[in-house]
Amino acid sequence: MNWRIKIGCIAVLFFACNGEEKKWGEDTPFVSEATKAYYSTEHLIEVEELKNFSTSIDHKIIDLRKPDDFNSGHIPNAINIWRTDIENNDYPYQGIMATKAQIELLFSKLGIENKDHLIIYDNNGACDASRLWWILKNYGFENVKLLNGGLDHWIEMKGKLSKETQVYQPSHFTLPDELNIKLYIGLNELKSVVTNNSSVVLDTRATDEFTGLRQKSGASRAGHIPKSIMVDWANTIDYHGSKKFKSFQELYDLYARHQITQDKDIIVYCHSGVRSSHTTFVLTELLGFKRVKNYDGSWVEWSYHKELPIESDTITKEYK
After folding, report:
1. Which of 42, 99, 100, 266 has the most CB within a 10 Å radius?
2. CB 277 within 8 A of CB 134
3. Closest CA to 207 of 126, 304, 313
4. What is the Cα–Cα distance from 89 to 103, expressed in whole angstroms?
5. Could you tell me the pTM of the whole model?
6. Is the pLDDT of residue 276 over 70?
7. For the structural domain made of 32-156, what CATH number should be given?
């Protein structure tokens, strides 16, 4: 082969390899050693990774906070969604996940395309963001990443903020035909579980809610589902600091102390399925548990049905 041709071929290969764009979910140098230890980071993105995200990938950033908080400053080009946008209002209580048709209509209005990869964040340690991840996973949409640390860590890492409203042309968003509800459990199935004592029921709320000292708005009674174990979701993140997820070992040890292990069927719940979605993410994505289901209606639904049993450890003193 002519030497000029050889050099030309080598040059083409070199630039082709070095100029290749990072693909969605591909390892990047911004992932820490602690993060690499997780069972999966397919649905997790770091702040530095987002800052250097390839513009060649079709993606949209979703800010899952109240509109007033969003308007006071958000990650550039983000679009706003709040909890009430992804709830089904056909029930006499709040919190049930939105229907497939609701999500399709909402996303179409916001200009989200079927091909888009969604990066979701909040200012609550990915708690609200996890709820949308969980809903979309039930409907078979997997192109989702949660921003580790959310807005708190974004600001901590000197990320820019914007008050401009990003508007996209309306789209025709459709969810896959087949559901993927392996992480979902409804009221009727849970009643059977509680009656037969066949699974670990994990309450992810705070202690005062679990004991019955506090009855949050939306709940009809105070207390917890019988025989449930409490592990506060906030213990899985650096709650008073970066809001990032704790390391694999810290998370594993946290649940092991409560005999919550991979060989058990685990049902998680909270007040309205938001905090328990976060715990579902931790258990399945970060720790690799395979037998986890999130109770959609959670305490708001369970407490509404007066015929269902509850346990309470104290006299209720607060109603906020």
Report:
1. 266
2. yes
3. 313
4. 13
5. 0.89
6. yes
7. 3.40.250.10
Are 200 and 227 a contacting pair, CB within 8 Å?
no
Give the pair of three-digit tokens for residue 15: 């630039």
**CA 293, CA 100: separation in Å to the nearest integer?**
19
Q: What is the pLDDT of residue 28?
A: 52
Q: What are phi and psi of 121, to 5 degrees?
A: -140, 165
As annotated, the active-site residues are 270
Helix (H, G, I), strand (E, B) or coil at 301: helix
Where, residue-wise, is CATH 3.40.250.10 in the chain? 32-156, 184-304
The residue type at 1: M
CA gap 30, 241 in Å, rounded = 19
Q: Which two tokens stand for residue 300?
A: 């708001």
The beta strands (E) that lie in the chain are given as 44-45, 59-63, 79-80, 117-121, 144-147, 184-185, 200-203, 229-230, 266-269, 292-295
Does residue 213 contact residue 316 with C-beta atoms inside 8 Å? Answer: yes
CB-facing half-sphere around the CA of 216: CA atoms within 13 A: 18
CATH code: domain 184-304 is 3.40.250.10
Q: Do the Cβ atoms of 35 and 46 come closer than 8 Å?
A: yes
Give percent above pLDDT 90 in the chain: 82
